[in-house]
Design goal:
single chain; 256 residues; alpha/beta; 2-enoyl-CoA Hydratase, Chain A, domain 1; Lyase 2-enoyl-coa Hydratase, Chain  A, domain 2; 2 domains; six-stranded mixed β-sheet; 11 helices; 15% strand; globular
Length: 256
């Protein structure tokens, strides 16, 4: 890749920290950054057991790079659809990938930034975080899977209202809505997320894989199909269950 990488990667044992490095652009998503996300999540390190995604600077991600959009947009709708398909691939690789992803949200979690956050499995918001979908005010529509993922978190009606009014939700409201799972003080999000990631990384890898890939799909199924899928997934995740269950009971005995 000839350009300077926009996604900085650091390894901390079984946990990898990925930092979006476009602080001067509020970490807005451009073509290069999407391609780097695809490249990493399509082939994550084999020793990765959890991933923490965060942004350099004051913001997690302010959404689509509008300057790039204006410079590259044309009357050819096929080209515009390619952009969306690239985003779909990047975010699908995150949500339905091999490794759980924890995001650290600070400052702007706006538009495409919220779409990106919605594809992660655990979301830690610092108190500075704010959530917004301003596309309606800009004459555009979500194009990075937001209309699919975000209503599954907050409901279709709330997403409609956010897009019609460009209403901004703070971190505490985001927690109530499910846009965040945790709210922590400013400047502590990354450390908190790394601790969570260490816990996640200690789980059986196959169990983590089943959780992040099975639950979203099963929840979209009818009851009979979901129960069948659950039995199939459960039967495939017991490779090291006996040892872990034995260790659990031995730990219980030791505490008595």
């Amino acid at each position: 890749m000839s350009q300077t990488p926009l996604l900085k990667v650091e390894q901390h044992g079984p946990v990898y920290a990925l930092a979006i490095d476009r602080a001067d652009q509020r970490n807005a998503l451009n073509h290069q950054l999407i391609e780097e996300l695809i490249a990493f999540f399509a082939n994550p390190p084999t020793d990765a057991r959890a991933i923490v995604l965060h942004g350099h600077g004051e913001h997690f991600c302010a959404g689509l790079d509008l300057k790039e959009l204006l410079a590259t947009r044309s009357d050819n709708t096929i080209i515009d659809q390619r952009r969306s398909k690239a985003w779909y691939r990047a975010f699908d690789l995150i949500q339905f990938g091999e490794v759980p992803v924890i995001s650290v949200l600070q400052g702007a979690v706006v538009g495409g930034g919220l779409e990106l956050a919605a594809s992660t499995h655990v979301r830690v918001a610092e108190r500075s975080a704010f959530f917004q979908l301003p596309e309606g005010q800009r004459g555009i529509f979500v194009g990075g899977s937001g209309s699919v993922r975000i209503p599954r978190i907050i409901g279709a009606g709330r997403m409609v209202e956010m897009m019609l009014t460009a209403r901004t939700h703070d971190a505490d409201t985001g927690l109530q809505l499910g846009l965040a799972h945790y709210v922590v003080d400013n400047g502590t999000g990354l450390a908190f997320a790394m601790q969570l990631a260490a816990t996640v990384a200690s789980n059986a890898p196959m169990s983590n894989y089943a959780v992040i890939n099975g639950i979203p799909r099963i929840s979209d199924m009818g009851q009979a199909e979901g129960l069948f899928a659950e039995t199939m997934v459960a039967s495939m995740t017991g490779a090291d269950a006996s040892q872990r269950i034995t260790s659990f009971f031995e730990g219980r005995k030791a505490q008595k």
